[in-house]
Amino acid sequence: MVNFLKGQPISLKAQIDKILPGVEINKLNASDHFLEEYEILIPQMVDHKDPKAGTFMQRVFLGHFDYESPIVMVTEGYSANDVTYEIAKKLRSNQLIVEYRYFGKSVPEDAEWKYLTNENAMKDLHRIHVLFSKIYKSKNWITTGISKGGTTCLFYEAAYPKDSRIAIPYVGPMADSPTDVRCDEHLKSIGDSGCRQALMDFQERVLDQKEEILPKLDSMSKQRDMVFSMGIEKALEYSVLELSFSFWQYAHQCDKIPTNSTPNQSFQYLESISGFAFYADATIDYFRPSFYQFMTENGYYGFVHEHLDDKLTEIKQFNNQYFAPRNTDLTYRPEFMIKAKKKLTKRKRVLQIQGELDPWSACGLKLEGKDQFYFVKQGGGHSVRIASFEKEKQDEIWNIIYSWMK
């Protein structure tokens, strides 16, 4: 269908230019069911309360199918990529992916960390909704996001419930502190005891083999041009601490945990689960904005470490504050999270997707009101999607979504 302004047909690009002043538009090759696709940079205020703080360009990806079709708005928690999400594919809808501020191409120039707040991020989303609602008149706006993007989806639903008809967050952790102990409790109880013990035994073995493993990590860092400003020994210890969380997060197989492994086998397995690149400077730089939010508003997890204390030499503080910005205020402020949780108990048409094994499930907000659903995939991890469920359960989920749409 062609949209009209003052009785005359007008192209989608022309509408975007007219309604979103100051935008930068890059037309992309259309994929999947979309007829047109665009990368769009939209001017946003760094601080929505203070115009003097300046502006930045926030990136969105628009996949256009039809002006009257539903709009799936993807609330990212990090950088955005031009991909088609399963809900948009299933509904043959339009899709709007919003990159999170301070990531990718959406980074303010010389902006202070204090402006990276959930309040500002939700106002970013609301403004984008208002602008694109001038183009798309459908009442079927569906918000969705994955992981930190799932948390963003829930926050957005709490802050601006009238912007969307349906919220479908995947994972969407709502942690209680920068070291939410519910994650620890999950790691100490999930799966069978033999599997958990095998993981702990392997962690201890790696630390016992540290002197043999460190040269292998040093060689890898040189081959892959990875820089570890923290030092390779600290990187190794962090990867050991992270192992149990990553193992269950992505539902790895218990029978693959090495027993009596050589230093080389230990090194290879640890790399396959924790990934040493996560502790390289480039990765830390990329994730620093999210760790600022984890430490100040969103909460996060700590490390289960008691069985390793006598073997760790580099790490004595068992949280993730090391990865947050230095020389800035990291005071934890739970007010936004508390208000969001309270508001969400009264919201309707919220459908959450979660994996049973994922430690983040321990921090999931299990809403139990009318038109609130929480689907957990048994044996599933962080990558669970609607398509991961058995056919009967998939049909149940989609029937709920269809029933909510006008």
TrEMBL record:
UniProt keyword annotation of Cell membrane present: no
One GO BP: proteolysis
Tree of life domain: Bacteria
Pfam family for this entry, one: Peptidase_S37
UniProt keyword Transcription regulation present: no
GO molecular function: aminopeptidase activity; dipeptidyl-peptidase activity
Swiss-Prot/TrEMBL keywords: Aminopeptidase, Hydrolase, Protease, Signal
PANTHER family membership: LYSOSOMAL PRO-X CARBOXYPEPTIDASE, PROTEASE S28 PRO-X CARBOXYPEPTIDASE-RELATED
Protein name: Tripeptidyl aminopeptidase
